[in-house]
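thread: overnight batch results

M.L. [08:02]
morning all. the overnight job finished for the chain we discussed friday. pasting input first so we're all looking at the same thing
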Amino acid sequence: MGKAMAMKHKNPEMNEKDHKSPESFTEKEKWNVMNTTSRIQYLWDYYKLPLVVLCIFIYIISYMAYKHYTRKEPLLYASLINVAASESLTQQLSDGYLEHIGADTDRTSCTLYTGWYLTGDAASEYFEYTYATRMKVLASIDSEQLDIVLMNQEAFDAFAQSGYLSNLEELLREYPDLYESVQPYLVMNLEILEDNSSELLLDSSLEYESTTTEYPMAVDLSKLGLMKHAGFQDSVYLGIIGNSPRMDAAAAYLRYLISE
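M.L. [08:03]
and the structure it wrote out:
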């Protein structure tokens, strides 16, 4: 009986924890009595800010690693201006060039901008795109992400007057075989060095005056290589942007376009 009494007095002490209110539980005790759903909610309530920061950090690191390992080396940037090309020709002017020179299309890129239009004709269906195209041209040239332009006469005149184009006679003399092939197709145009256009805005009675220089700025591709078979009714001119850091690639691209 004494033994039984001893056990009777011991049980309340052993089960003291079972009679504690939830508010008095330690964090470890709370965790032990939680089910899976409650534990997930607990972690979210108390650690959501660190978890969100950690997730963002993991995302940034993963994105940077993805961009690093999938980034393609840009070999050339070209643009069609006032020229609408078929899907087949567009492919030939971009990935077709990479395949022609044996470049790895998974590691390198030839960017071809399309849908660019420059026109001063307010009645033209493309007039509304002119301002946006001008901004794209300026941004691309400033960032050295435009090497080649394929354009019609109107766009050629605009690029020439702005002084964007290289002197092809001087440039292509560094590639004698290429120069010999395109020399008969070089086209002259005028660069405006200085004019009084700003004064005309203030006084329309003044006559327009300008100082210009003339030199070969483009190659007429209409009777050469790819463009000869593309079915264009008007001439398509190729110009090389003066500040291009990829002159060798631009020359190689021209050689590709005139190849049969």
